[in-house]
Amino acid sequence: MTPTTTRPVVELTGVSKTYGEVAALADADLTIMRGELLCIVGPSGSGKSTLLNIVGTLARPTAGTVRIDGHAVEELSDRELSALRAQSIGFVFQSFHLAPGVTALDSVADGLLYSGRSRGERRALAERALRRVGLGPRLYNEPHQLSGGEKQRVAIARAVLGDPPLLLADEPTGALDSASGAVVMELLHELHRAGTTVVVITHDRDIAGSLPRAVRLKDGRITPDSAAGAHANTSAYAPARTQREVGV
Ligand code: ADP
Ligand code: MG
After folding, report:
1. Would you write out the chain's pLDDT as a tens digit for each of its 248 residues?
2. How far is ligand 2, taken at its centre, from the CA of residue 200, in Å?
3. What does the domain layout of the chain look like in residue ranges?
4. Atom 1, ligand 1: which residue's CA is nearest?
5. Beta bridge partners of residue 68, listed in sequence order
6. Are the C-beta atoms of residues 210 and 63 closer than 8 Å to each other?
7. Angstrom distance (rounded) from CA 166 to CA 55
8. Looking at the CA of 171, which ligand is closest?
9. Candidates 49, 95, 171: which one to mutate for ligand 1, based on the most atoms within 8 Å of Cβ?
10. Measuring from each residue's beta carbon to the nearest atom of ligand 1, which residues come in under 6 Å?
11. How far is the CA of 45 from the centre of ligand 2 (A)?
């Protein structure tokens, strides 16, 4: 048996995804080990979200094999896949997906609606997750009473509520000013230090440069990894000095 710490959490082999004529992802091989922190970078339309959605089992590939946390995704039914997702994967998106009029506490607690836990338990766990992301003083704020960065932190609290081993973030700082983006990135670093495997799509060169590994995509193809070794052990995130490359 391979020790848990060196086990891959993601293994893609020859994965392709086509939409009609468009090869969104072509023959992708990617292994992500437990405990990694990496980014996926590339121009708009290069297949980053497609790759992340396949890793997150939100999309099934047209060809190739996907193993997540040791499970061969193509062998799982939709129901088993939902269970794997619920147990193993947290998602964060550029737009925060918070329902208007719902407090931060309830937004996060609702992530446990189908967990079989009582309302009191759900709220207690949600409160703990919100405190973890530094939102203890904002439990009863509704989205319109939160800044963009705070909304994203609510979304992150919801994503990490069940302590998933894998956190996938699609441009989590894309809608934020650089100061709020830095706070969100620092939070992702903290989750990584606590043991979560974190994969983040970013357009921001400074963010990409601050992470230990970058997977680069171009026209649906993964180009050889760049390992920014100098940054591998740094936990500090330098706030963006240059503007984001391009809009999405
Ligand atoms: P990125 O996230 O890097 O901007 P995407 O993965 O969203 O790129 O898209 C890669 C390519 O696949 C693009 O050409 C896009 O238009 C196409 N694509 C993505 N999703 C779909 C879809 N659901 N239907 C049709 N084409 C899609
Ligand atoms: Mg995208």
Report:
1. 545 557 899 999 999 999 999 999 999 999 999 999 999 999 999 999 999 999 999 999 999 999 999 999 999 999 999 999 988 999 999 999 999 999 999 999 998 887 889 999 999 999 999 999 999 999 999 999 999 999 999 999 999 998 899 999 999 999 999 999 999 999 999 999 999 999 999 988 889 999 999 999 999 999 977 654 434 333 333 333 333 333 33
2. 11
3. 8-101+143-230
4. 45
5. 10, 71
6. no
7. 10
8. 2
9. 49
10. 19, 22, 24, 42, 44-50
11. 7
Nearest CA to ligand 1 atom 21: 19
- Residue 150: name the closest of 127, 183, 192, 174 by CA: 183
Q: DSSP character for 240?
A: P
**Of 50, 93, 216, which is best to mutate to test ligand 1, by the most ligand atoms within 8 angstroms of its C-beta?**
50
Superfamily of structural domain 8-101+143-230: P-loop containing nucleotide triphosphate hydrolases (3.40.50.300)
The residue whose two tokens read 């932190």 is: 153
